[in-house]
Amino acid sequence: MRILIVTLALLVATTAISQGLENVALNRPYTMTEPSYRLCTDADDAVQLTDGVRTEGHFWTRPTTVGWSGGAPKFITIDLGQVQPISGVSFSTAAGIAEVQWPADLYVFVSDDGEAWYMAGDLLDLSADVSSPPEDGYATHVFRTEALRTHARYVQIVAVPDGSYLFVDEIEVYRGEDDWLAEALPGEPKPDVQSHMAGLRFNGLIKAQLRRDLDAVRADVEGPGLTQAQRTRLSAEVDRAAERITDMAPVSSEGFRAILPMTDLEREIFRLQAAVWRAQEKPDLRVWKAHRWDPLPPSAEPTEAEPPVLDVAMMAGEYRADVLNFTNARDDDVTVRFAINGLPGGTNPEYISVHEVLTVGTRRFVAVSSALPLARREGDDYVVTVPSGMAKQVWLGFNPREVDPGSFSGRIDLASSTGETQGVEIRLRIYPIDFPETPSLLLGGWSYTDGAGGRAINAQNRDAVIAHLQEHFVRTP
Predict the structure, then answer these.
(1) DSSP codes, 107-172
(2) Where are the alpha helices (H) located in 223-291, listed in sequence order?
(3) How far is residue 412's CA from residue 424's CA, in Å, rounded to a whole number?
(4) Which of 84, 104, 114, 195 has its CA 20 to 30 A from that of 366?
């Protein structure tokens, strides 16, 4: 009895969340991917998603919630009993703590017969026009749209987790106008939604990255440094870009590379970011410094006006590094050429490796600046391209083995395609201590060198990966 009382105290009975809408999914049966999150899985999961009852408190500890562990898409199909006109749907969920994230994708499919399926919309896209979930802290949120104009007996929600967990306590389907029943269903029919999901997921990730890029532009437009006229004009351009993301054509995976900017539309969004910087009267090309392990968002800017100085202190034979950042406010890409001078070993000493840091979109919904291909060389110059409206990082790796101990001062001599030149100081101190060739510390990690293709380690690159790890003192896979 006590357990029953506690449970009932957590329930909140609701009708459709928008006044005047008829929820035709109320108490209708459904099928779904089998729930797998233990703390909220119970026999009533089979009815809870359409019972009109909402959860209070943390979703994943309440029996009124349906939850899953694992990052694969979750499929929920509601049988409305007969073909109904549909104006919208909603998906009630929660996230924000304990590694629970908002859904990565929420696709809506409709079918009159349960055989041919038509995509009615991307609920994340459509819901963004109504409201967005908070970025920080635990919260509940209803992803909702009333912008559909379709019909169906069966409504299928495909929910893709961002990470390893997904929770939902209620799905609603809103009735539309009767004359919609005579209209054709949207697009081409799909006999199998699950096989269709791979392409949708791929394009959903691209759209999500473009929205994050545009969010950074919008934040700058709403911030200081602009006149009201500039803010109005640029806000309108941001809104047009948001519409273009929603309506963008699918991107083919053939030959696709996830290096930002990934598409022409993303390149235009970054050019819009550059236009905002110019309106704020920021310099065309900024050269600046950050800690080498700090995340570097695509539109990162310097926070201090101090000139950058690279400062490296190390033992002989050790590996150390420092970085230099460039931010481009021009409407076109900027080429930066540079050489390292003044240190032992002459121009561009062999013990310094120079890498262009690539910013890469990921399935974890964050762009990561960590890929380190060697920078292109032309004669005595290293050459990197800084895209319009983006930050670019250069990583300098130091591994002196034949240099006498001491303190040294050098510089990076820069020249850009804008005609600017600049010198950046490098301070290098080598202590009179040799780093051991074979450290006594056993260093290891998740290298996957014994796998059969997982984590991108395969027969073609395995030996090179192992050699690289061993060179950097990894001895324990």
Answers:
(1) EEEEESSSSSBEEEEEHHHHHHTT----SSS-EEEEEEE----EEEEEEEEEEE-SSSEEEESEEE
(2) 228-247, 264-279
(3) 5
(4) 195
- Cβ pair 216, 391 in contact under 8 A: no
Give the neighbor-by-neighbor strand order of the sheet with 406-416: 309-316, 421-434, 406-416, 334-341, 381-386, 376-378
Measured torsion, CA atoms of residues 275, 393, 301, 138, in degrees rounded to the nearest 10: 110
> pLDDT of 396-446, one tens digit each?
999 999 999 999 999 999 999 989 899 999 999 999 999 998 899 888 888
Degrees to nearest 5, angle at CA 65 with 114 and 55: 120
Please report the sign of the dihedral spanned by the C-alpha atoms of residue 125, residue 128, residue 133, residue 135.
Answer: positive
138: Cβ contacts below 8 Å, ≥ 6 apart: 58, 94, 95, 96, 97
Tens-place pLDDT, residues 42-81: 999 999 999 999 998 889 999 999 999 988 899 999 999 9
Considering the chain, what is the average pLDDT of its residues? 91
- Cα 99 from Cα 207, distance rounded (Å): 23
Angle value at C-alpha 89, between 84 and 92, nearest 5 degrees: 140
Q: What is the pLDDT of residue 331?
A: 97
List the end-to-end C-alpha distance of the chain, in Å, as a whole number.
54
Cβ–Cβ < 8 Å for 230, 279: yes
pTM of the model: 0.72
Contact 404, 351 (CB under 8 A): no
Cβ count near 304 (within 10 Å): 9
Question: 371 forms bridges with which residues in the sheet?
Answer: 358
**Exposure b/e, 66-78, CB count within 10 A at least 16 = b:** bbbeebebbbbbb
**At a CB cut-off of 8 Å and minimum separation 6, what does 291 contact?**
none
Mean pLDDT of 379-406: 97
Instruction: Please give the pLDDT value at position 68.
Output: 96
At residue 6, does pLDDT exceed 70? no
- CA 380 to CA 348: how far, in whole Å? 7
Is omega for the bond preceding 302 within 30 degrees of 0, making it cis? no
* Rounded-to-10 torsion of CA 183, 189, 193, 198: -120
Long-range contacts of 181-184 (CB under 8 A, 24+ apart): 181/83, 181/85, 181/151, 183/149, 183/150, 183/151
